[in-house]
Amino acid sequence: MRLRRAILGPALVFLTIHTIVLVLAGDQERNVWYDAAIRNIESRIRAAAAATSTGTSPPAGEARSVVLFVGDGMGTSTLTAARILFGQRRGNTGEEAELAWDIFPAVALARTYNIDAQVGESSACATALLCGVKANYETVGLDASAKFDNCLSSKTARVPSIVDWAQERGKSTGFVTTTRVTHATPAALYAHAPSRYWEDDGKVPSAARVSCKDIAKQLLEDEPGRNINVILGGGRRHFVSKVTQDPEEPDKEGRRLDGRNLITEWMKNHQGPTTKYVYSKEQFEDIDPARVDHLLGLFAYSHMDFDVDRNTTGTGDPSLTEMTIKALRILKKNPNGYFLFVEGGRIDHAHHYNNAYRALDETLAMEEAVRAVMAEVDLTETLLVVTADHSHVLTLGGLATLRGNPIFGSDSKKSDVDGKPYTTLLYSNGPGHTEPRSVMREAGKDSIQTAGVPRTWATHGGEDVPVFAIGPLANILFSGSIDQSYIPHAIAYAACMGRHASRCSHESATNNDTIIAAISCPSAEPNSAAISSDVMNDQARNPPSKSSNNGVVSGGSNSKCWCTDISSLSLLYLLLLISLSFSSVS
């Protein structure tokens, strides 16, 4: 017994030190991005105030509700090609067409790199876009102190998302996606996982299952997932056990190893006549938004079908537009407002196949949903943002190509090197690399475009992606070149959420030094009450060095939120007491 206690004492001391190191590392990683966003917002608000008649009054306005659209892989070349397709489908040359977001008054470019990757990946980009911190490749809802596939490193690296902030303000929340609801991008709304692939417990390493939950289980059990009002997308397989047959594809079974049926458990957690679960278009159409407060719709075993392949009968699936409007009408009953996230998730998948037809068609399916939302909401009180998580390696090329050239066709000229034709839309890499190119394939929905470098699966693109915004404060908050991690903080400022929850009660401030309102201090978020008015410096734009302690930005922002300090010190004190007690007994 004495030997055991003699071992336990030093072990607990080691665990104490290790835990504190992780907590402080997480705080440092988080502060870099939080503080950079705050300084960026402050600079914009000061500039806007200076333009007023008094030169001191901050711009007024509050976005009671927010709708955030994300086209997965929808880079600039995708937008241009989709715009041309939009026009050509209406009998025009196409180049002169306008997509719904082309008329938005605020436009910015977002940098999509990850902490450890030059070209961004969906889950890490989604963490930046939805949680406000840059993250490591293939991690979800964690700051950069977390390492891929490492459960222990994730415990102190969790960061709240924009859904947390909205729920704290009493807003209804929901999300719609054409991918699995546990997939890389939507997962960042509610989950914290060191691997985007941990969608069910079968994907979590056996040694980590006690300490780290899979993504589907977090959606059911943890905040903010369990409080989300509307969840629509695909991915039934991650919610049921391996002995449960799929209702639409009976030859397939669930993937859970724990024997649980999370769909049934979700229904029990939200018992009552206002709770519904659906898996077909017919069931979905029977939902009356006025009578439903919680809706779970899982319309596919895995991802939902591409829109061009979608079964539109009652046994099929609703469109992205139909899901979006149904979700909107459920959420907007809340007088406090709502936050709705909508993902056109399969743009990315088609690009990976070099299948430009489906990629552009999916982009236009999301464009239709944006138009529908614009007709449904009051833009004087609703902030609408459209962006992408990352780009793809699609290019739009040509040499004196005539106006109106079919967007899926070949260029009007042939190569001056080998005399062979090539498609107007090209990919820098992927399965479209084939020889010879003597005859162009028919430009149908299954055709693939020419690719320069052979790969079985095309890569992402690393260029900046556009951000389009309309609604309260959009023209002030969204412009220029921004880090992707800035976006949720700007949304939170406009909607008075998160650290900006108290802003709307301080709009009468006239002192130029207090234009940025008092910042609240929710748990797990560092404070920046003392903020520099300087624009973002290089240190904030670069990931913190692992070999130095220069990871926190200057200008008075080194001080963390007092509640974070106290929680860290309390943990240190408690663990030290336990360690000392064991050591003394030994």
UniProtKB/TrEMBL annotation:
Cofactor note: Binds 2 Zn(2+) ions. Binds 1 Mg(2+) ion.
Cofactor(s) annotated in UniProt: Zn(2+); Mg(2+)
Gene Ontology terms, MF aspect: alkaline phosphatase activity; metal ion binding
Binding-site residues for Zn(2+), renumbered to this chain: D72, D348, H352, D389, H390, H460
Active site: S122
Membrane topology: Lipid-anchor; GPI-anchor
Location (main, coarse): membrane
Cellular-component GO terms for this entry: plasma membrane; side of membrane
UniProt keyword Transmembrane helix present: no
PANTHER family the record matches: ALKALINE PHOSPHATASE, ALKALINE PHOSPHATASE-RELATED
Protein name: alkaline phosphatase
Species: Microctonus aethiopoides
UniProt lineage: Eukaryota, Metazoa, Ecdysozoa, Arthropoda, Hexapoda
